């Protein structure tokens, strides 16, 4: 077996490792993609426009907000600003994951940032935290199925619009919080985990009740991150080297 | 081109800026201060918590049961196991408490 063949089969394994980890995300986001498509058409989008929005933005919550505002005939610039606000948390993901993928070629990085969603970030960050390197092939294996299913199911939802039966009984409105809780708990071994989670939870709940959605996401996240920055470094497990 | 198309396109550009922007800002610094690094390490738990906490507070018994089971399973199982367990409890519980 030549070295090239070995590295090629290694890359294939990496890819399927990523695909395997993408499955919970594909399952959890499926109802939302279908729902998005259905709501989009309901709010005056064509099937093509619903498809395009999923293919180009690829951010579930922001698409839902955008569609909702579009349906209420809000000014276009305000819709775009709202999409930006909902997605603003990605700035933090971007800063965090940049450390892990800086060794990739620029075009691969550009693509990597395009598919940088909540679960993509969390799973990649968890892999880096466990001491494994975050390779492009693995990252693509993790993100590509989510993207393909998201776009296809959005179009499907748009075509079949109102065929989804009782969404409440199927629990689809609460699948993502369950999935995100699983991700949060996956980081529980990190230094400062509990104080950060407590600060973010409190701040996001207060912001949700006062300022309102979607700002509670950015405000809550900044509260948790600020706490980690403010506490002395010996608590946060970095800068221990003499 | 329709207004809808331009909204989608501008939304896509705005979204991509958020996904690449943090990296572009941070990469300008040669070495990262320990406090900044501590902040970056806190990002996943901080952001994901905000996607759970308000939703959990506004929910009912069925959702709480699902979250508790998810948390318990997470002590032992992997991500898929805890997700499926939480989803199963949610669907089951909603048949009874709506």
TrEMBL record, chain A:
<protein>
    <submittedName>
        <fullName>Branched-chain amino acid ABC transporter permease</fullName>
    </submittedName>
</protein>
<feature type="transmembrane region" description="Helical">
    <location>
        <begin position="192"/>
        <end position="209"/>
    </location>
</feature>
<keyword id="KW-0813">Transport</keyword>
<feature type="transmembrane region" description="Helical">
    <location>
        <begin position="136"/>
        <end position="161"/>
    </location>
</feature>
<keyword id="KW-1133">Transmembrane helix</keyword>
<feature type="transmembrane region" description="Helical">
    <location>
        <begin position="215"/>
        <end position="232"/>
    </location>
</feature>
<comment type="similarity">
    <text>Belongs to the AzlC family.</text>
</comment>
<dbReference type="GO" id="GO:0005886">
    <property type="term" value="C:plasma membrane"/>
</dbReference>
<keyword id="KW-0472">Membrane</keyword>
<feature type="transmembrane region" description="Helical">
    <location>
        <begin position="73"/>
        <end position="92"/>
    </location>
</feature>
<keyword id="KW-0812">Transmembrane</keyword>
<keyword id="KW-1003">Cell membrane</keyword>
<dbReference type="GO" id="GO:1903785">
    <property type="term" value="P:L-valine transmembrane transport"/>
</dbReference>
<dbReference type="Pfam" id="PF03591">
    <property type="entry name" value="AzlC"/>
</dbReference>
<feature type="transmembrane region" description="Helical">
    <location>
        <begin position="21"/>
        <end position="41"/>
    </location>
</feature>
<dbReference type="InterPro" id="IPR011606">
    <property type="entry name" value="Brnchd-chn_aa_trnsp_permease"/>
</dbReference>
<feature type="transmembrane region" description="Helical">
    <location>
        <begin position="167"/>
        <end position="185"/>
    </location>
</feature>
From TrEMBL, chain B:
<dbReference type="Pfam" id="PF05437">
    <property type="entry name" value="AzlD"/>
</dbReference>
<feature type="transmembrane region" description="Helical">
    <location>
        <begin position="38"/>
        <end position="58"/>
    </location>
</feature>
<protein>
    <submittedName>
        <fullName>AzlD family protein</fullName>
    </submittedName>
</protein>
<feature type="transmembrane region" description="Helical">
    <location>
        <begin position="64"/>
        <end position="93"/>
    </location>
</feature>
<keyword id="KW-1133">Transmembrane helix</keyword>
<keyword id="KW-0472">Membrane</keyword>
<dbReference type="InterPro" id="IPR008407">
    <property type="entry name" value="Brnchd-chn_aa_trnsp_AzlD"/>
</dbReference>
<feature type="transmembrane region" description="Helical">
    <location>
        <begin position="6"/>
        <end position="26"/>
    </location>
</feature>
<keyword id="KW-0812">Transmembrane</keyword>
């Amino acid at each position: 077996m030549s070295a090239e063949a070995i590295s090629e089969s290694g890359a294939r394994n990496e890819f399927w490792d990523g695909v395997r980890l993408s499955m919970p995300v594909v399952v959890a986001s499926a109802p939302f993609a279908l729902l998005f498509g259905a709501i989009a058409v309901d709010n005056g989008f064509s099937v093509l426009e619903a498809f395009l929005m999923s293919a180009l933005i690829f951010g579930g919550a922001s698409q839902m907000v955008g569609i909702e505002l579009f349906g209420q005939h809000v000014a276009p610039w305000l819709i775009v600003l709202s999409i930006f606000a909902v997605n603003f948390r990605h700035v933090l993901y971007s800063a965090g994951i940049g450390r892990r993928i800086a060794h990739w070629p620029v075009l691969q990085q550009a693509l990597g940032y395009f598919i940088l969603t909540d679960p993509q970030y969390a799973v990649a960050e968890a892999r880096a935290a466990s001491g494994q390197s975050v390779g492009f092939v693995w990252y693509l294996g993790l993100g590509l199925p989510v993207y393909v299913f998201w776009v296809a199911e959005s179009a499907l939802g748009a075509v079949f619009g109102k065929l989804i039966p009782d969404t409440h009984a199927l629990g689809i409105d609460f699948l993502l919080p369950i999935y995100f809780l699983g991700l949060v708990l996956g980081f529980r071994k990190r230094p400062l985990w509990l104080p950060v989670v407590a600060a973010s939870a409190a701040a996001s709940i207060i912001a949700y009740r006062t300022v309102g959605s979607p700002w509670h996401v950015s405000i809550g996240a900044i509260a948790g991150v600020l706490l980690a920055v403010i506490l002395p470094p010996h608590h946060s497990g970095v800068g221990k080297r003499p | 081109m329709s207004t809808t198309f331009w909204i989608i396109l501008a939304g896509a550009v705005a979204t991509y800026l958020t996904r690449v922007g943090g990296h572009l800002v941070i990469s300008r610094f040669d070495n990262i201060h320990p406090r900044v690094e501590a902040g970056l390490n806190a990002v996943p738990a901080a952001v994901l918590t905000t996607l759970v906490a308000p939703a959990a507070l506004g929910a009912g018994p069925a959702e709480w049961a699902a979250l508790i089971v998810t948390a318990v399973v997470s002590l032992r199982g992997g991500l898929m196991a805890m997700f499926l367990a939480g989803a199963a409890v949610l669907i089951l519980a909603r048949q009874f408490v709506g």
